[in-house]
Each structure stands twice: as structure tokens, then as C-alpha cells.
Amino acid sequence: MKILISNDDGYQAPGIVQLAQSLAREHDVIVVAPSENKSAASSSLTLDKPLRPIQISNNIYSIDATPSDCVHLALCGFLNEKIDLVVTGINFGANLGDDVIYSGTVAGAIEGRFLGLPSVAISLASREGHNFETAGMVAKQLISQISHAQLSHDTVLNVNVPDVPFRDIKGFQTTRLGKRHMSEQSVTDKDDPSLYWIGENGKEVDNGVGTDFHAIANHYVSVTPLQIDLTKYNEIDTVSTWLNQLK
Which residues pair with 85 in a beta bridge? Predict the structure, then answer.
């Protein structure tokens, strides 16, 4: 397969380097990724200026842009190649529960799905980043079998890998998204109290059996199918009834 790889940590980040190396053993890979860290960029697109892809090597391009920009331009702009699959990552840090709303890594995969391609987002669930090679081996294993998955056209796979040696991975679990509390309180900058830093992620509040949090805590690879449709269908009748009562 010809695989487009992107991320939100930047084209030189250890995760994307490992991902490209792992998948290149069996596939034709091309990297189009941000020139620097764009974590938490979500699905933002740059619409107020033109973007310039810079070729770093034969199959690596960097762009001063968001992950969604990179995937969009690669598939709709300068590559002029037929891509079979989009894989984003390996993210430095988990994308569990509510994280997926903010994640540039997940957003890059979603952009691939918007543009009609099967897409997978892969994250190393740790802030230490000791075992990117484990995540690379997991990615290789999953991608080699993805043609058998028969995913519907609007599904994105969100994959989180425990930060442990590959021999300590217990297996794969299909999971749902867990949930965190609201973010921690924002804090003032230590040098300038008129400046604020966004608070850390909130603590886990829904992390029981079947969630992505639970799988990672027990050394399983978490694979969560995500849908792009955000409609809350079980509230349509309630909202419709309310609107019909408006004077």
C-alpha cells in the first residue's frame, strides 16, 4: 500500500520517525507533517495565508501548518499520487477519552476520512516516551491486517499503545472512549501574572472496563472506532418538541 503519514508533533519527532521506519518495511510511505509542534490543533485549517510544502528528502515534506492542513494538501494538492491509507502518529502522549476532541493527531486521521480514505491515529500513552518501538511494531501489525477490517466509509480507528516493552503488551482490546473531569484550573505565568497557561487534563472519571483508559492501564492496546457524525440522535425528538412549542 501507499501510505500517507502525518502527525502533530512535527516531522522530526521520534514518533513519526519510528512510524515511517516501521511501515516502510512492507509499504510505500510518504511523510507530510508540520514543521514544528502543533499539538492540540484539533481540525483547524489555515485559511488566511498560502502554505508552502518543503521537500526534506525523497519521501518527506514539512509544512508550517496544522496536521489537518498537511493531510488536506497532500491529498488534494501537491502530491499527485494515489494514496491508499492515512496513518497519523505516533503521538507523544495518550489520546484517550475527551483528548480526541483536541488532538491534532486524531484530527489528521479524521481529515483523511473526510477525503475518502481509511485512516488510523496511533498514540503512545505516556509522557515519558520510552517505547516508541513498541508502538511502531503495533502499527505494523495493525496496518498489515487493516484490509480485512471492512470498516464503514466514515470510521477512524483511534489506537493507543501502552508505553511498555512489546513483550509486556497483553493483546488488543476494542474499546469505547472514556471521559475525564474538566481541565485543571488555569495557572498564571511565573514571570508575568498577566499571562495564563491552560490547565492540565482533568483526571479520569469514566475509566471502567471497556474504556480506552482501562485497556491502557492493564497493558492492552486500545482500538476505538470513532465516527465523524456528532449528531446526538436520541435528543432529536426532545429538541424537536421544544422547538415546536416556541411562540
Answer: 3
Residue type, 244: N
The torsion angles phi and psi of 121, rounded to 5 degrees, stand at: -110, 130
**Can you give the C-alpha Rg of the chain in angstroms?**
19
Q: What percent of the chain has pLDDT over 70?
A: 96
Q: Read out DSSP for 101-153?
A: HH-HHHHHHHHHHHTT--EEEEEEE-SS---HHHHHHHHHHHHHHGGGS---T
Strand, coil or helix: 141: helix
Q: Chain-centre distance of CA 219, in angstroms?
A: 20
Higher-pLDDT residue of 191 and 236 is 236
Averaged confidence pLDDT in the chain: 92
Pull the grid cell for residue 121: 491515529
Question: Strands 28-34, 2-6: parallel, antiparallel or unpaired by DSSP?
Answer: parallel
CA distance 8 to 29: 17
Q: Are strands 60-63 and 28-34 parallel, antiparallel or unpaired?
A: parallel
In this prediction the pTM is 0.91
Which residues are within 8 A (CB) of 8 and not within 5 positions of it... i.e. 6 or more apart?
34, 37, 38, 39, 40, 41, 66, 67, 88, 91, 103, 104, 105, 107, 108
Map grid coordinates 502522549 to a residue.
93
Phi, psi of 44 (to 5 degrees): -65, 140
Q: Which amino acid is at 233?
A: Y
Lookup: cell for 20: 515511517
Q: Span 52-75, mean pLDDT?
A: 96
Structural domains for the chain = 2-244 (3.40.1210.10)
